[in-house]
Structure formats: C-alpha cells, structure tokens
Design a protein that fits this description.
The protein is mostly helical. It is built from 18 helices and three strands. The chain folds into two domains: 188 residues, Orthogonal Bundle (Preprotein translocase SecY subunit), CATH 1.10.3370; 243 residues, Preprotein translocase SecY subunit, CATH 1.10.3370.10.
C-alpha cells in the first residue's frame, strides 16, 4: 500500500534540493520568507467566510492552524497522515519496514499523498459545517448568503492553503534552518504566548494593568492576581522544561580508545509521542461531544452517549486563558454532562491518559521508525569500536545492554513528557503545555545555528549573551 501511494506522488510537483551547500545567511533568508508567508496566510480570511475567531484552542496551537483563514487546516493533514500510517504499520495492517533510506523516502511520499486526501476531506467538513450546502451556515459572509457555490469555494481555498503549507514545509526543510512543520509549530506557539500575554496585561475588560489603573479597589486587585496566573505558570514551565531537556542518560557503552560514555537525551524521541497523543485524544474528545448529543432512549443511543462521555472524560478541558476565574470555577464546581463526574477529576483523568497515550505512541513510533533498542543495537553493531564497558565485544551482549537501557527510556520519557504536557494545560500555560514542550524542543535543535548567526551578524549582542565572538 505504501508503494502504491508513493507512485501517485510523481504527479505532484516537488521542491528541488539545493545544488550547492547554502550559507547561514541564505538559510536565514529562506526561513524568514517562509515565516512571512505563514503569518500572511494566518491573517488571510478565505473568501466567503464572515469572520475569524480570535480564540485559539489546544488543537489549533499544535497543528499551527487558524479556522476561517488559509491556515484553517495548518499542518494537521501532514501530522494526521503520519499518525494514520504509523498506526496501520504498527498494528500490522500494513506490512512495511522502514529499514532503508529508500523505504523511508517512499513512506514520506505516501504520507504527502494521504495528507492531500485528508486535506480535501477536512476542508469539505469545515465548509459543510461553517457554510453549509445552501450557504446559510453560521460563518457565511453576508455577500455570499444563499449562493450554492460558496461551500465549494471555501473548501477550494482551504485545500489550496493546505497545499501551500506542504510546499512551504519542503522549502524550509531543504533551504531553511529547520523543517517547516517545526517552524510553524514554534511560530504559532510563540505567537499564542506573546499575544496572550499582551491581552492579559493590556486588555480593557480583563487586562491586569487597566484594572490597576482604574482603581477598582480590592476586587480589581484580586482579579488581577488571578489573571496573572498564566504568565507565572508559563515562565515556570519554560524554565522547568528547558532543564529537563538538558538531562542526559548514560548507556554503559564506550568507544575504544576513549573514556567517554555514550549518552542519550532523556527525551529520546523528542516530542513526537505527545504530538500524536494530544491530537488523538482531542479527536476522541470532539467525537465524544458529538455522541453525547445523540437523541433517543433506546439501548443503542444510550450506549453511544456513554461512549461519548468516556471520550469526553479522557479529552482536555476547554481552557480560556483570558478568563481564568471562569476556568477555575469550571474545574472546582463544574461536572461532566452525563455521568456528573467533577471536572477536577476529569482533569486528572486526562493528564493520566495523556501520559499513557504518549507512552504507547512513543513505543509505536520507535518500533516503526527503527529507533527502539533492538534497531539501535543493529546500527551500533556496524561500528567495531563500540563495545560494552567491562566486556569483550560480543554482539549479543551489546544488543542486550542497549535494549535494557533504551526501551525503558522510551517508555519512561514518553510517559513523563505526556504528563508534563497535561499538567501544563491544567495550569493554563499560554500556548498550551504541549505547545511549549514542542517549541522549546524545536528552539534547542535550532540553537547552534542561532548562536552562529548572532556571532556573525550581531557580535555585540553575542558578547552580552556570553558568547565568544
């Protein structure tokens, strides 16, 4: 199936790789250009849509999207396509091993084909919901009400935007500092954090500074203290996640002639498991909201509503970072729609399930992409200078030791990264806990190039930051 899907990729235009090595200046130029196009698309409302909501949710942050614009789908089709193929391969539905560079290339091509198909489906789902076949939906622009082609026009623009994102990803990957997917996530989360912080500080109705200036007394002071919680938790989260990212795990392997041990980052799979887990749980949550509303008193309707309630409970709480008092009231006073479970318990359940789901997806991803202990040991066997400390070189001992350390590391790190993301969401972190995790991980991978750019183009700033020019 992967090979069949990859064959269709030949009908898609592709971005050629650079013929010569690009300078850092060229990479910065292309990265900046891609970012400019990304933000222009984020603020370009598609023709036929009435308005674009200023509110963002966890899903829109993770997939770098904004409903009603050319970025309505963001990188969602790419991530969901990868998730779907990973599940099919990991579950044994598709027999395909990514054990060679050529097979990985075919997998990437098949992923793009599936992403385009998903974009087409998602675009029409959005258009049918927001616009409707008769153009009488809630988001129809007044000039297009009743026009039967409006739904198709909106869907076409959204698909076009999704295709732009796919090619911007290729441009950034081949010519920029990092992949487009990473760049869009980092840009979207950074935008959410900065815009959210500015709103909390300066908004006329809920802003902290206007409340102080207006002299509203003790009540205004109490509201300001509560409203500042997301700013404090976001700063603490950035510090804590940065520290955890720096942790390294030593494996009892050494290179002959050297005293150094081989070390792996604690977040061995970076943030991939929590991306998949978050999107998976949000999809179940949205499905649960639909099932809960099914009418009828028959056994099937009641069973579907219970399933919907389960999906709702394991999903995230709707968080409005701009109204923290309302969020706190929801957590400690609210109850779930059917079973009447307290929302604070719902929050705890979501955190635990997100951690377990991240662990499951981490194991699946490692096995599918050849990053588990056994696959890593097979790669290390090709280097005769690598051996287990205290043993003569024996491939069996090497494999046993690598599996003994790497596989538990995959499970533990994926579990912890999921728990951190869930706790971050619970404390109303701006940009979401998952988003901050992703962004810090992305910035850390870009950090060497960023430092080099500062040294070259801003040596005075490099000195202030403690960098040697």
């Amino acid at each position: 199936m992967i090979e069949t899907l990859a064959k269709f990729y030949r009908y898609f235009p592709s971005i050629p790789s650079p013929k010569v090595a690009l300078s850092l200046k060229d990479k910065i130029f292309w990265t900046t250009l891609v970012l400019i196009v990304y933000f222009l698309m984020m603020h370009t409302t598609v023709i036929g849509v009435k308005h674009v909501s200023a509110q963002v949710d966890i899903l829109s942050i993770i997939v770098a999207s904004r409903a009603g614009t050319l970025l309505t789908l963001g990188i969602g089709p790419i991530i969901i396509a990868s998730l779907l193929l990973q599940l099919l391969i990991g579950g044994g539905v598709i027999k395909y091993k990514l054990d060679t560079p050529e097979k990985k290339k075919r997998f990437a091509e098949a992923q793009i084909v599936v992403a385009v198909l998903l974009a087409l489906v998602q675009a029409y789902v959005y258009a049918a919901t927001a616009i409707g076949p008769t153009a009488t939906g809630p988001q129809v622009s007044p000039a297009f009400i009743g026009n039967p082609i409006t739904m198709h026009l909106v869907a076409f623009q959204i698909v076009l935007g999704a295709l732009f994102v796919i090619y911007l990803d290729q441009i950034s990957t081949k010519y920029g500092l990092t992949s487009g997917i990473s760049l869009f996530i980092a840009a979207g989360v950074s935008y959410a954090i900065i815009s959210g912080a500015l709103y909390l500080l300066f908004s006329e109705d809920l802003g902290i500074l206007p409340k102080f200036i207006s002299g509203g007394g003790i009540e205004a002071l109490q509201l300001a203290i509560v409203q500042i919680i997301p700013l404090i938790t976001t700063i603490l989260a950035i510090y804590a996640i940065t520290w955890i990212q720096s942790i390294r795990v030593s494996i009892p392997l050494a290179i002959m002639g050297q005293d150094k041990k081989i070390e792996l980052p604690f977040f061995y799979l970076t943030t991939i498991p929590v991306i998949f887990a978050s999107i998976f749980l949000i999809m179940l949550y949205q499905l649960g909201l639909t099932l809960i509303q099914i009418p009828g008193d028959d056994a099937l309707s009641q069973a579907l509503r219970v399933i919907g309630e389960i999906f709702y409970i394991i999903g995230p709480l709707p968080i409005n970072h701009f109204n923290i008092p309302a969020y706190i009231n929801l957590v400690f006073s609210g109850k779930t729609p059917i079973l009447g479970i307290p929302e604070w318990l719902h929050l705890i359940i979501h955190i635990i399930v997100l951690g377990l789901a991240s662990m499951a997806f981490g194991v699946l991803w490692a096995e599918t992409m050849g990053q588990d202990g056994k696959s890593l040991a097979q790669q290390l066997k090709q280097y005769p200078q690598v051996q287990v400390q205290g043993y003569r070189r024996d491939p069996r001992i090497l494999e046993r030791k690598v599996v003994e350390y790497v596989d538990p590391l995959i499970k533990l790190s994926s579990l912890i990264i999921g728990l951190i993301a869930g706790v971050g969401d619970a404390f109303a972190i701006l940009g979401s806990g998952t988003g901050v995790l992703l962004t810090i991980s992305i910035y850390e991978r870009m950090l060497p190039q960023i430092r080099e750019a500062i040294k070259i183009y801003a040596p005075q700033l490099a000195v202030l930051l403690g960098e040697k020019p």
